[in-house]
Every structure is written in structure tokens, then in C-alpha cells.
Amino acid sequence: MIFKEYLPRSLFGRSLLILVGPLVLLQLVVAAVFVERHIEAVTRQIAGSTARELNYAIDAVEQAANAADGQRRLDALAGPLGMTLTLSEGDSVPSETLRRFYDIAGGAVEQTLKSDLRRPLALEGDLSDRELTARILTDKGVLTARIDRRRLSVSNAHQLFVITLAAAMALLVVAVIFLRNQIRPIRALAAAADAFGKGRAVPFQPAGAEEVRRAGAAFLSMRASIERQIESRTRMLSGVSHDLRTPLTRMKLALAMLEADGADTQDMEADIRAMERMIDEFLAFARQEAGEEPEAVDPRSVAEQAVAAARRSGGAPELRDERAGAATDLVTMRAGAVARALGNLLDNALSFGTAVSLTLRASSRHLEFEVEDDGPGIPAARREEALKPFARLDVSRNQDRGAGVGLGLSIAAEVARAHGGALILGESARLGGLSARLRLPR
Ligand SMILES: Nc1ncnc2c1ncn2[C@@H]1O[C@H](COP(=O)(O)OP(=O)(O)OP(=O)(O)O)[C@@H](O)[C@H]1O
Ligand SMILES: [Mg+2]
Description:
Shape: rod-shaped
Structural class: alpha+beta
Radius of gyration: 45 Å
Number of strands: 11
Distance between the termini: 33 Å
Low-confidence stretches: none
Bound molecules: adenosine-5'-triphosphate, magnesium ion
Mean pLDDT: 83
Order of helices and strands: HHHEHEEEHHHEHEEHEEHHEE
């Protein structure tokens, strides 16, 4: 539909249109019918009777012997007819009629007079004046009649428009006030749902019309049940992880006590260490998830925190800030979790490449941290797999690295998701290796 482009997008605009559209249409129809039919018909009647009186005066003039006699007869008529009648020399009347555009009934008056008098005629003034001047050509000169406008037409026909328009405006103001109040709770619900999607729980109270209130209550209970679910699952996983430590420690001890000191024991020790790391990593993540509230922070300080941590463990990532002037405001996020996710990405980049950079970018809707390296990258077909927990691609390819457990990328992706954002893997255009973009909504 072509119309769609011109229709208002907001509920407020649409409701207003639904309300005002019919109102205006109704007014137009009423005004058209009323003016066309009623006012015109009445005007023709009134003007017709005045025309008969003028005809009477014209007859008197034309039956007179001369102009002076004509004027005398007119003077006798002027009183009873209630007009000012004067006869003056002349053999033509101006053909242009002075009339204003909003003078609805003027046309009908002019037509009626012209067709009833059947003489050259000019009207001067319009129906908003108190009097109209009609100049009529007779055989004894020009008869000038000053006629009260109430004898020609319904008075002030255009006032109908003014009154209806004023009434419509008053209605519109009331409608705008009421509509705003109705739409405010819907906006509040949208804002609360949006914030929840970005991992923030803003206070929200259902309000407004029955249906809106119900939607608000449904949202609240949905939010509560999601929060409960996440919490109970995290608590359960933490419990399991925590309890796994004891048997692992026991196994480590048992291994140490074993006499045998072969390759098998070393492998088992490495496996146990990997399991311990896995558990530690998960527990640290779960604790942070549970304990940290989102707050407004400067993204740069978060990036600096992650870079500093990477430097401490021996890397030298470069920090690049590509945000434009206005986009440097604070952004609400769980700073600790984001720094941790960035730390994981930097860790990966440093173990696969030598040149590593962390770039900060911002648009009006997103904030983006991009970690790039000059390593081998991840082929497009395997990127999805790499994001899965415990996924380690092609272990033989990177034997020189310490054994990872495959949680780094999935934790970073989880942090992004919890903020309503995403972790996007790609190929770095600048360095040639992997590009991991942690994108958060702002
Ligand atoms: N910058 C990178 N370049 C090339 N491959 C990568 C890069 N980052 C990750 N990968 C691949 O994706 C896999 C998953 O990475 P992830 O960070 O999840 O686990 P990990 O590094 O092996 O272990 P962890 O980070 O838990 O110690 C890695 O095993 C590796 O094969
Ligand atoms: Mg990793």
C-alpha cells in the first residue's frame, strides 16, 4: 500500500487519526450538504422576495415620465420597502462583482437577482457587510439600491464553519489529553520489556486500561519466572560443580600416591587439571552472573581493564578507540562480566596470533568491542561450533597452547546474550585472523 508510508507509525498518531479522520469527514459532509442545499435554498427564497421588491421599484422608475419623476416615485417607495433607492445618470454598471472567497451564499444571491431582474446588474460588498449595494441599469439611468444584507441571505453563513471548527478543536484537545494517558502505560510496558531483554530489570507497575494492565501483569509474571528459572539452574550447576571438586581432589591425591609414574599417569593428571579449570571457570562465571548489577560505565574503562589483565599475563594487545565524539557516553552493562568476556577473547587471540587489537566502536544503537588477531582464524563453517560450550576446534592445530577447556567463547557469547547483544565471529580485515565482535545494545 502506498498509503502506509503516510500513515503515522505510533499508536498515538494512529488513534488520533482514527478519531479525527471521521470527525473531519463528518464535518465536511455536513457543511457541504448544509451549505449546498439548505443555505442556498433559503438564500434563493430570501433574495427572490427582495428581487420582487426591486422589480417593483424598477417598474416605478420605468413608468415615470423622466428621471426626476422616477426619483420622486422611488422616494415614496424607499420607506415601505426599507431600502435606500437613488437614481443617477449613467448607461452602464461595472461588470466585476466584488465578493470575498468565503462568502458562501453570495453566489446564490447574485444569481437570483440577475435572473429575476433580467437587467444588467452589479453587486458591491459582501454578506459580512451590513449593507449591499446593487446597481441596476434602467431606461432612466442607474438605480442604486442599498439593501440590508439580512434581506438577501441567511446572515453569516460562514459562521457555521467557524463554530464547527472551534468545536472540533476543543474535542481534539480533549482527545489528545485522554489518548496520552491511555498510551503512557503501553510505552512503559514496552520500555520494561526492552530493558529486560538487555538484562536490566527496571521497576514496572501495570497501569491503564484493563487489557494493557493484563499485558503488564503477564509480563511481570513472565519476567519473574524467567529470573527464577535462571537462578535455580545456575544454583544447581554451581552446586554440582562445587561438589565435583572434592572427588577431583581425592583423585589427584590418589594419583600422587600411586607408585607408577608413566605416561598414563601424566595424561590423567592433565585431564584432572583440565577438569579443575573447567569448574573454576564456570564457578567464576556463575558467581559473577548472580552477583553483579548493571550500571552505567564508560566502555573505555572496561576495555582498559581487559587489556591490562591481558598485559599482566604476557600479551601486548593494542587498544583502539574508534567512537565518534557524541557516542562516548556511559553505557549500562555488567562491567565485570563484559571485562571477563573480553579477557577470554583476548586470551584466545593472544594464543593464536601475535598482533592483537581491541577496538571500541559505537553507533546510536550499539556498542561494539572487536578483538582481532593475525592468527589462522576460524573457517566460516565452524564458527557456530566454536561458540558451543566445551568446543575446541582441531586440537592438533594448536598443540603449543596450554589445554583450553572450550568455555572461553561460549562464556563471552553468554555475556553478550545476557545484555541483549551478540557475539559475532568473522574474519579480521585488518589483521587477517579471527575477528570476534562483542556487540551490546546501548
Ligand atoms: N582467535 C582465534 N583464532 C583461531 N581459533 C580460535 C580463536 N579463538 C578460538 N578459536 C577456536 O575456538 C575454540 C573454542 O574457543 P574457546 O575460547 O571457547 O575455548 P578454548 O580457548 O579452547 O578454551 P578456554 O578459553 O575455555 O580456555 C578454540 O579451541 C579454538 O580452536
Ligand atoms: Mg579460549
